[in-house]
Amino acid sequence: MTDPGGQSPRERYRAQVRMEIKQHAWEQIAVEGVSALSLNAIAKQMGMSGPALYRYFAGRDELITALIRDAYRSLADTVRASFDSGADLAGLARVIREWARSDPHRYFLIYGTPVPGYQAPEDTTAISFEVMAVLLEACGAPSMGEPATPLDAHLENHRQWVGGHPAAAATLHRALSFWTRLHGVLSLELAGHFTGMEFDPGLLIADELNALP
Amino acid sequence: MTDPGGQSPRERYRAQVRMEIKQHAWEQIAVEGVSALSLNAIAKQMGMSGPALYRYFAGRDELITALIRDAYRSLADTVRASFDSGADLAGLARVIREWARSDPHRYFLIYGTPVPGYQAPEDTTAISFEVMAVLLEACGAPSMGEPATPLDAHLENHRQWVGGHPAAAATLHRALSFWTRLHGVLSLELAGHFTGMEFDPGLLIADELNALP
DNA sequence: TCACTTTAGTTATAGGCTATAACGACACTT
DNA sequence: AAGTGTCGTTATAGCCTATAACTAAAGTGA
After folding, report:
1. How far is B133 from chain A (nearest CA, A)?
2. Rounded to two decimals, what is the model's pTM?
């Protein structure tokens, strides 16, 4: 161990190449989607031949997993930064929507069709909880009271929810509604299910969030 | 033209084999998802060798397109039948959710991550309008009045919306909210994004639809 | 009935992909 | 300077989609 910080020149180079591979992967995904992601094509773009990439990623699945992790990380950081800058729920929705529209395939990598065999690793679920934690903070109960619906009563029993995050049932409910309503409109918008019916999804989102419980 | 009805024994056989191919395709999709769908594997299962399938489908894409069409058809029929049997919005939501949960990959084939190059053919969009038409009927304005939000005002200008379906802005708004809220919860549920946080998505859907505009 | 045409299947082949194995060449260590 | 580990290579196996060329059978019409 010449390097106590875990940053030997070798490791530095390794990390650099991994980054570069992911870079090309993202470009490929942005154009053709994740299903068309090809290790071979990436290798060719980088001027090296096929199997070399297996020194850096155990296989296609591991590369995709890394991309998913980065996507989660990017979303969590974006949401956190926006909230810390004083954004309210409407502001968060706007930021998330822009994040998604700037690279729809990245959004679908997280919230799109799940891969059958795929099991999300521990840390990515942890990152997704980061997002939820921000939502819970942003949903800090403005309308507190006793459980109004069966769901509220149900949620009272699940307060340990987000990694022990203590939140009132009403706050949980509010955060859930925010998340699912935004995703409902956004995913359909990104998938092109609104094309033909000419209306502005942004207005629908605004209404949906205005009517939050 | 020996057969005026377009049902020569040859065509009958053709249709039969096409059905059988799609049958195997569905089984394969239900297990491994659409990304793992393999013409070769289907051919092997049917006891014939690879390229034979190209007599029946021009390629993988055309097969998938046919599957998407059938999925839309199934959803539209299910929704229509349920509504005609007297179901209200809550009932429709229940039926749609059951339809989706009975075969999640079929749901994602319609509402999941879009294939980059894929352009939905005319008739599938027509079928999706069938679904929307039922929703509009089911949303028949219980709370009528003048436009309350910018979206309502916006929708007033787009009444020609669903193939000339004349609907009040409030009805459109209601149908949109129903659709996007249901999809928001349902797609996240099917994708497994609620696992870990133990709560019943059905209760959330109920609340979301109770609070419809 | 017999030739003609259409169709359904076959095998062969090209070219793509993931992934592993075996091997050469360099760099880093001691 | 010798040893060791790492990065890259080529070769190969085994999938896949898709096309081409061919065979056999079924339908078609005089």
Report:
1. 13
2. 0.90
